[in-house]
């Protein structure tokens, strides 16, 4: 439904600032806080630890220069990110279940760069921070988007509000800092749709423009307990090209409780997105959504080795488009959804710079594809070709991350996935990926 993100209204741009797929890992925040990246990141960037989550909850206001004499209290710095990638797939099906040799990655594809982002972000003042992002993307449209956060300190934490707009990072882009994939950048694997339930279900991704308020505090219920809670509303787009944003506002809520147990932090959370309505075929395009899920995260140290474990469960994810143009939506990208999924992801760092990771995922596509779609293949063959094609009995993904510095901070990730579809006529398929992130 998005056409060209360079058309995002200037007024909205002035109210928001940007997000990048590696936004929390940028050296601009190290310059602002005086801390090494490992102070706020666990294992490999951009995954956040407790200190990183606290910095995010502060609205990015923590700064070495906050009290400089004759200073304004503002501390904004630029950063650049380049992400290059090689990806190759074998026997990966299309939505009809047929293997396509014309898919760019079928014979291997280089993207140099895959993404290039220019960011400006940090502290605006005592209680406000912002980020601005301009991104070039090899496959998707170029994008501009961002967020601004107001945060006020309370006895053991922060209360705040965020305004945000993102072309691809989903409804929780304003304030979500757990590494479960609910917010697209904070995940374990680049091969996200075969390793993470929230990404496979298209919950933690996609265009979103919204606002939310949040509460983040230590010593809740017990001294070593921590509570994060937020409510808000968003429209699933960045512009009015295909749907009126003001008529498609969906409420959402998120809660997570963190408990420190010995050398481990245990985090249990849940979320919901419920709202919208169905309309007649003569009315403007409208969306109705009912989405629920739960997640669990464990992070800590075993035998002086950093370890993490993430469980993500989609209980229900039903998205329905109605109104003018709903029968012309691209079934490959913007389509009705009805799915459930479950994933487990884990990583262990043998040394601080080197981590090995693995994931297991199942996916159940419950959507009853129609027999006929205007402008698309019609008749019973359409339904027969699509039903259960996306179902995955199981997918296994393994990988390795290596962080290093060669003049600039860099990270290399190597990943390989094996997927076994539920439908017998769909072949087992594989995905192999190598990515290089360069930060400045």
Would you kindly provide a written description of the structure presented here, covering whatever features stand out?
- The protein has one domain (5-439): Porin.
- It is globular.
- It is built from five helices and 16 strands.
- The chain has a 16-stranded antiparallel β-barrel with strand order 1-2-3-4-5-6-7-8-9-10-11-12-13-14-15-16.
- The protein has 440 residues and is mostly beta strands.
- Residues 1-25 have low confidence and may be disordered.
- The protein has helices at residues 10-15, 27-33, 50-57, 197-200, 380-386, and strands at residues 75-90, 109-125, 128-137, 143-154, 157-166, 208-218, 225-235, 250-261, 264-276, 286-302, 305-322, 337-351, 354-365, 392-406, 408-421, 429-439.
- Helix content is 7%, strand content 49%.
- A hairpin with a 1-residue loop joins strand 14 and strand 15.
Report the structural category.
mainly beta
In terms of DSSP E residues, the strand content is: over 45%
Number of helices: 5
Number of domains: 1
Shape: globular
CATH architecture: Beta Barrel
Order of helices and strands: HHHEEEEEHEEEEEEEEHEEE
Q: Report the CATH C-level class.
A: Mainly Beta
Helix content: under 10%
Radius of gyration: 21 Å
- Main-sheet strand order equals 1-2-3-4-5-6-7-8-9-10-11-12-13-14-15-16
Question: How would you summarize what this structure contains?
Answer:
By secondary structure, the chain is mainly β.
């Amino acid at each position: 439904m998005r056409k060209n993100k360079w058309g995002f209204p200037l007024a909205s741009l002035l109210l928001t600032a940007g997000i990048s797929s590696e936004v929390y890992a940028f050296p601009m925040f190290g310059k602002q806080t005086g801390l090494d990246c490992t102070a706020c990141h666990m294992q490999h960037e951009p995954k956040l630890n407790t200190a990183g989550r606290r910095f995010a909850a502060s609205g990015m206001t923590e700064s070495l220069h906050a009290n400089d004499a004759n200073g304004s209290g503002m501390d904004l710095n630029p950063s650049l990110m380049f992400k290059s990638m090689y990806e190759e797939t074998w026997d990966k099906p299309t939505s009809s279940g047929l293997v396509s040799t014309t898919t760019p990655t079928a014979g291997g594809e280089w993207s140099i760069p895959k993404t290039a982002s220019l960011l400006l972000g940090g502290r605006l003042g005592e209680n406000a921070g912002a980020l601005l992002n301009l991104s070039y993307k090899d496959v998707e449209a170029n994008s501009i988007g961002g967020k601004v956060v107001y945060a006020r300190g309370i006895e053991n934490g922060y209360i705040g509000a965020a305004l945000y707009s993102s072309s691809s990072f989903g409804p929780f882009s304003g304030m979500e800092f757990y590494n479960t994939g609910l917010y697209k950048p904070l995940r374990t694997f680049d091969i996200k749709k075969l390793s993470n339930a929230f990404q496979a279900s298209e919950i933690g991704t996609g265009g979103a423009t919204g606002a939310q308020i949040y509460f983040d505090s230590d010593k809740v219920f017990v001294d070593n307990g921590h509570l994060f809670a937020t409510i808000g509303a968003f429209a699933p787009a960045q512009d009015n090209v295909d749907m009126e944003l003001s008529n498609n506002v969906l409420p959402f809520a998120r809660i997570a409780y963190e408990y420190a147990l010995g050398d481990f932090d245990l985090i249990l959370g849940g979320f919901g997105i419920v709202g919208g309505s169905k309309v007649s075929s003569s009315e403007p395009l409208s969306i109705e959504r009912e989405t629920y899920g739960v997640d669990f995260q464990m992070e800590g140290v075993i035998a002086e080795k950093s370890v993490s474990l993430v469980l993500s469960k989609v209980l229900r994810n039903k998205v329905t488009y109605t109104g003018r143009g709903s029968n012309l939506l691209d079934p490959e990208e913007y389509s009705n959804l009805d799915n459930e999924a479950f994933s487990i992801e884990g990583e262990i760092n043998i040394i601080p710079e080197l981590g090995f990771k693995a994931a297991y995922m199942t996916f159940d596509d419950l959507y009853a594809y129609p027999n006929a779609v205007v402008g698309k293949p019609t008749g019973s063959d359409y339904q027969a070709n699509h039903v259960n094609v996306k179902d995955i009995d199981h997918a296994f993904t393994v990988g390795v991350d290596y962080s290093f510095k060669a003049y600039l901070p860099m990270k290399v990730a190597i990943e390989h996935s094996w997927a076994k579809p539920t439908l017998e006529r769909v072949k087992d398929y594989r995905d192999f990926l190598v990515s290089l992130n360069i930060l400045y």
